[in-house]
Each structure stands twice: as structure tokens, then as C-alpha cells.
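Please think about what follows:
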Amino acid sequence: MGISVLLFGLLSGSLLAVLVGIIGSRRRIGFGWAFLLSLIFTPLVGLIVALLTDPLPDCERRWGCIGTVVAVLGILCLIVFLMLLLTGGAMLMAAL
């Protein structure tokens, strides 16, 4: 497995963990705990835990479109990671 596959895997996991943290910031768990759970386990586990906690009362919108941008970047990096993983890096070598 090449360094590029590992890099895209870490990048997509980190971006999805930030997205889960943004979701958790509007709940009792908070950004930090949701982000940490997503990094330690997986973003899916962090998302489930964040959605199971109670929402904060009277929560105003602070993030704007940052959550959407992070989600799109995370999904794109995840797709590239999966493509590199499935092709064994042959796609990267063909581009060079």
C-alpha cells in the first residue's frame, strides 16, 4: 500500500471527524468529544453517539456552510482513497 493511499485515508477520516464534531457542537456532547470519539473509533460511531445525545436548547447557527464544505471534501477524499485502495495504486501510476 502506497503512501498516497494512506494519506488520502487519513485525510478523509479527519475531514469526516470534523464534520461529526460540527454536528456534535449543537448537542450536549460538544465539538471536542464528538471529534475525539470520531478519531478514536470511526466517524460513524462518533455520529451515532453525537445523534443520541440531547440537542442544546436555543442553538443558533454559527457554522454557516462550513459543514457542507467539509462534508463534500471528506466524501471526495474517501472516494479517492477507495479507488486507490481497490486499484492498488495503479491509477496513480498511470497518471504519472
